[in-house]
Design goal:
Elements (H helix, E strand, L loop, with lengths): L16 E8 L5 H14 L4 H14 L6 E6 L1 H7 L8 H5 L4 H7 L8 H4 L4 E7 L2 H17 L3 E9 L1 E2 L5 E2 L15 H10 L16 E2 L9 E12 L1 H14 L8 H8 L38 H5 L6 H4 L8 E4 L16 H8 L8 E9 L3 H12 L25 E3 L11 E3 L5 E11 L2 H5 L2
Antiparallel strand pairs: 1-3, 1-4, 2-3, 5-6, 7-8, 8-10, 8-13, 9-10, 11-12
């Protein structure tokens, strides 16, 4: 089964340098397109089996894995190949730029980069330890696609950003990727031993991501729906709003970092704000829930609480998806996110820190695998993140990714950490992440691709 499944679904490929190549097929050259995809499957794509063998090898010898490659098709890609039956989830069939899809998650096509607003038939993801390794594979794959008459529409570079503890962070400066649904027995065992699983069970069934590949004609061949969203981050706007929130909450000096932690649900170093009122500088814990936190430590609207309320309820857990995002940095940063100094006041921020921060040109390539786009990504974005009334009326939207009219409702912040005697503070926090474009794809099985 693992030999017929693409890598990166059950476990992140982990390479710090990536490239997403978006392409359009030539419907008049179906045979050539099929041949190119067969060749990709036979010679380039990294199977789950190979990825896991390389991971084992790395643990023993520290030898890094080979260049990682995965292939994805959109609904128009299947149509161009003339393949039936194809994956048939309504969102996938409609595509991300379809008016109904846009409306469902309150995306605004006017803000999309032209490359993403056009018909995209497929995408190749390349990952490697070095940029030159990525470029080498890019050359081979571009040639293959070009020979089949495919047009390359856009190439999107992604690069991991690390903090001083060598942990991956995003551009606002926070540890990202710590909490994931774990699908492999050995990953679950590792996590349970090193981090614990008494309060949050990180183990999920394979159906957190896998569906039978409808076009493979083989019950043991699986694929996964895939979301790609280019999300631009206004770092200056976000970090300045953190300072304004710190003022509104009466936080001074070192305590000011609490403001951002209340927005994200974790301090920059990954310490969950439901567990502590300052950063602890340890390996970020993940064995926690909000069972004894009525919103006075981690607010209900905080990014991580809103997208994973961490109840043991199986229906709620069924919305959790393996995320595989990576930052992009198109405008080089004056100082890396990990070296941005802490501000002592809003005036100090405006004077010394603001000039160091970008208002755009950087962000997150949000990528995730889904068993069901409707039950996982759409549910999370529409019914949790964008919904000002989840989990209770007037909670406010997710301050990082929430979009739509709910932004008019100010979120309510604890007046003191774990101190319900202090009055709560109403303060609006949103609008610093902008969707620049994306698509819904399917990661087909190798069985399907090899038999095209
Ligand atoms: C620029 C956009 C985004 C930024 C800056 C961001 C940032 C973060 C950070 C810092 C964390 C904490 C690290 C961790 O627990 O892994 C996190 C976790 C998470 N994010 Fe995001 N994120 C973004 C977009 C999204 C989107 C679009 C979704 C889904 C629709 C999402 C879903 C999640 C989930 C499910 C978690 C894990 C929560 C948990 O299990 O506790 N994020 N994100």
């Amino acid at each position: 089964m693992l030999q017929c499944l693409q890598g990166n679904i059950l476990k992140a490929h982990g390479r710090p340098e990536t490239l997403n190549i978006f392409f359009r097929l030539d419907p008049a050259q179906q045979l050539q397109s099929k041949r190119a995809l067969r060749e990709l499957a036979n010679y380039h794509i990294t199977t789950a089996d190979k990825q896991l063998r390389e991971t084992e090898q790395f643990k023993k010898t520290k030898k890094p894995g080979s260049t990682f490659v995965a292939a994805f098709l959109s609904a128009t890609g299947y149509a161009a190949l003339g393949v039936a039956p194809m994956p048939n989830e309504p969102l996938f069939v409609a595509g991300m730029s379809d008016p109904t899809s846009l409306a469902a998650v309150k995306d605004d096509l006017a803000g999309w980069e032209a490359a993403f607003a056009q018909q995209i038939d497929g995408m190749i993801l390349i990952g490697d330890m070095t940029r030159s390794g990525v470029d080498h594979k890019r050359f081979e794959i571009s040639k293959l696609l070009g020979e089949a008459g495919a047009v390359i529409l856009h190439e999107q570079v992604g690069s991991a950003v690390k903090n001083h503890a060598d942990v991956g962070i995003e551009h606002f400066g926070y540890v990202d990727g710590r909490s994931q649904p774990l699908l492999l027995t050995e990953d679950i065992a590792d996590e349970t031993t090193t981090a614990g699983s008494a309060r949050w069970d990180p183990s999920f069934g394979l159906n957190a991501a896998l569906v039978q590949d409808p076009a493979a004609n083989d019950p043991d061949s699986f694929g996964s729906y895939f979301i790609f969203r280019k999300l631009e981050q206004n770092v200056l706007g976000f970090k300045r709003r953190e300072q304004e929130l710190a003022d509104a909450l009466g936080l001074n000096d070192d305590a000011r970092e609490l403001a951002g932690a209340l927005v994200v649900g974790r301090f920059e170093d990954g310490t969950p704000v439901t567990m502590a009122d300052d950063s602890k500088g340890q390996v970020p814990p993940n064995d926690f829930n909000y069972g004894n936190d009525p919103g006075s430590r981690c607010p209900f609207h905080a990014h991580i609480r809103k997208v994973n309320p961490r109840h043991a309820d199986p229906f709620e857990r069924s919305h959790i998806m393996p995320r595989r995002g990576i930052p992009f940095t198109e405008t080089p940063r004056r100082v890396p996110p990990s070296d941005v100094p802490d501000a002592k006041s809003l005036a100090d921020f405006d004077q010394t820190i603001a000039p160091l921060l970008p208002t755009g040109g950087v962000g997150l390539l949000f990528m995730a695998y889904n068993r069901s786009l409707t039950d996982q990504f759409l549910f999370t974005q529409q019914l949790w993140a964008n919904n000002q009334d989840f989990p209770a009326p007037n909670t406010g939207i997710n301050p990082i990714i929430g979009q739509g009219p709910g932004a008019a409702v100010a979120q309510t912040w604890p007046g003191g950490w774990d101190d319900t005697t202090k009055p709560a503070v109403a303060f609006g926090f949103s609008g610093f992440v902008t969707m620049r474009g994306g698509e819904y794809f399917f990661a087909p099985s190798l069985t399907f691709l090899k038999n095209l």
